[in-house]
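seq:
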Amino acid sequence: MNRILALGLCLAAIGLGWFAYTRVSPQPAVAASTAPLTPKVENSKIYLVPLGGFPNEQITPLVEYYHRKFNLDIEVLQDVSIDNSVLDPQRQQLIAERLIDNMRAALPAQANDPRAILIGLTSQDVYPASQGWRFAFGWRQGSTRSAVVSTARMTLHFPGEPLDLDPSDTRVRKVVTKDIGLLYYGLPQSTNPKSVLYNQIMGIEELDAVGEDF
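struct:
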């Protein structure tokens, strides 16, 4: 009888001990990456390129922003004129792939430098012919370390958004930040709709919903 009682007390003690462990023992946490961001290619440099007369007063705040946020020294290159062959006359939009080719052809030194990241900015509407989309906020080519960003639709409003709100500056930053994350830092696209690297930005509403961090 004493042996049975002792066995019961032992099992109860083990049960209480396990309960206490699961209540107070720290659970394994998913380790957050605390490693500092580093460029995918050492000594890489980012260049912003005004395309077709894109105003410099819209580029200067971007340069200042990325210097504060990521300590990046971004250089602004001379304006690149847009060749007539880039325009789709039927759609009255620029073809994104041709626009990147146009930019790179005008800047051979940077285009042939494997450490150079080129991000062009245009106020004209663009679309990628390879995808057949109606439009795009931007288009990038990882193989050539190049991207273009269009601000043409960034002043538009989605249903229910206050008409007196002008979030266009923030929208431009988000698209450029995504390009920097992918092309400069070599980060992957994300399925998190709050990440600036979100891979399903289909319109203004999704663009507004993402944050400005990776």
